[in-house]
Design a protein that fits this description.
elongated, 309 residues, five-stranded mixed sheet, 13 helices, 53% helix
Length: 309
């Protein structure tokens, strides 16, 4: 570049001996990372897109290196997100399987209304969260599904996802249209959700709601299919964690936000099949965390990635 005074400058570092003959600028690196992570474009299509639309010849190996470099630069941002999550009082959690080099791994998400952290864990047990968040879990109210690992952790409190329960109850309605038990439990849960929506900032005592639920749980369901008693036993186990959202307006009644946050991983896997390396999987998790956090705060995911690279 030549400025108005005649000085000649370069917008990149001098090439090292034995390095690549071509240096790609910040915008190209940011766009490549954004399309790979946020838009889930595979490297082969990404290579074709750059050549067709921008007349930029770039190899798939270079695209891989660009994303990996973004992973290295993302570490301070990920540490900040994790620190803010540790300080949060209400956190939603979820987990999902992901394949790395053909082997099953587990992806975990911890998120709030303003933060998203997706990371790869060694398994699906409570130990993964305990190693990652430590004693800060004792200060959190966890919004989760009914996976047993979450109830093995010493959280401050729990709130199970009512959307999951409503789907389970709808299944019971489908397999037996004559019974009324599942419909009555559905009605109770929907009324509680409606009450919270009508009074979004009020503290609503949950005792009356628990009394109504207990009445339904005392019914004898032996005349119905075994699925009814199985769900009833599951509800009894988590009975104390169903209506906590009524007494604390900061607690959501469902864990849909966590499922939406981790859904991008499933989209990526559906398009690309699996991750070819652990580093590639970690890069996707970290950069998706940053992009989704930016989106939650009304910022552009592309701008967030551009700030990294």
């Amino acid at each position: 570049k030549v400025c108005s005074c005649g000085c000649c400058n370069r917008d990149y570092a001098p090439r090292r001996r034995g390095g690549n003959a071509i240096t790609f600028g910040k915008n190209i690196r940011a766009i490549a990372t954004y399309l790979s992570v946020v838009q889930c474009v595979p490297y082969e299509r990404l290579q074709s897109l750059f050549a067709t639309m921008f007349n930029v010849r770039i190899s798939q190996g270079t695209l891989v290196n660009i994303v990996r470099e973004a992973l290295d630069k993302s570490r301070p941002a990920i540490e900040l997100i994790e620190r803010l999550l540790r300080e949060s009082s209400v956190v939603g959690f979820d987990e999902s399987g992901c394949y790395v080099k053909g082997r099953l791994n587990w992806s975990w998400i911890a998120q709030t209304a303003y933060l998203t952290l997706v990371f790869r864990g060694a398994g699906r047990s409570a130990k993964v969260l305990e190693e990652r968040f430590g004693d800060s879990l004792k200060k959190m109210t966890a919004v989760t599904d009914r996976h047993s690992a979450y109830f093995a952790i010493d959280f401050l409190n729990n709130q199970i996802c009512l959307a999951h329960l409503l789907r389970n109850l709808e299944y019971l309605n489908d397999i037996d249209k004559e019974q009324t038990w599942a419909k009555e439990v559905q009605t109770l849960l929907r009324e509680a959700i409606h009450q919270r929506n009508e009074k979004p900032v009020d503290i609503i005592p949950k005792d009356d709601w628990l009394t109504r639920l207990d009445g339904l749980l005392k019914r004898n369901l032996d005349s119905l299919r075994k699925e009814f008693n199985e769900l009833k036993r599951g509800i009894i186990k988590c009975r104390d964690y169903i209506f906590n959202f009524l007494e604390n307006p900061a607690i959501p009644s469902d864990n849909n936000a966590s499922e939406r946050g981790i859904r991008k991983l499933k989209v990526k896997q559906k398009i690309s099949g699996c991750f070819r390396s652990g580093t590639g999987a970690d890069a996707f998790h970290a950069l998706h965390s940053i992009a989704d956090t930016a989106w939650k705060n009304g910022q552009s995911p592309l701008d967030a990635i551009l700030a990294l690279v």
